[in-house]
Design a protein that fits this description.
With 129 residues, this protein is mainly α. The protein contains five helices and two strands. The chain has two domains: 64 residues, Arc Repressor Mutant, subunit A (Orthogonal Bundle), CATH 1.10.10; 45 residues. It is 55% helix and 6% strand. A two-stranded antiparallel sheet has the order 1-2. One of its GO terms (molecular function) is DNA-binding transcription factor activity.
């Protein structure tokens, strides 16, 4: 089951962070068709956010066809976003963990690591166009 977290410093609305986390979990194969999302009550208790925030996120996911609410039962995944690259994820994840360990060993903090990764990622995407 997915475990949500919020980054209050991100500038991204909490409901959008929940939507993004579900989409990422679907893309990475961490959630599959038929899996149940945490109940609104569970998310509210864990994150201390307004229930309407969770409902808004779940409604958006439902509107896009990724989940469906079943009255009295919960919200369930109806569509996957994983593709054929899923098999390559684990070796890449291991390499990324090693890279992160080297960055930390070099004295970089989380914000610096994120900045380096994101700028390099964006530059890489721009040069491929």
């Amino acid at each position: 089951m997915i475990e949500f977290h919020l980054d209050v410093r991100s500038g991204v609305a909490p409901y959008a962070q929940l939507v993004q986390q579900v989409r990422q979990a679907l893309r990475l194969g961490l959630l599959s068709v038929g899996d149940q999302l945490p109940t609104v009550k569970e998310v509210v208790a864990k994150l201390a956010i307004n229930p309407n925030t969770v409902l808004k996120a779940y409604r958006e996911l439902e509107h896009t066809g990724l989940v469906a609410a079943r009255p009295g039962l919960g919200t369930f995944v109806t569509q996957s976003l994983a593709d054929k690259s899923l098999a390559a994820h684990e070796p890449l994840r291991q390499e990324l963990r090693q890279w992160l360990a080297r960055a930390q060993a070099a004295g970089m903090d989380a914000d610096s690591i994120e900045a380096l990764f994101m700028t390099t990622f964006r530059t890489s995407l721009e040069t491929r166009r």
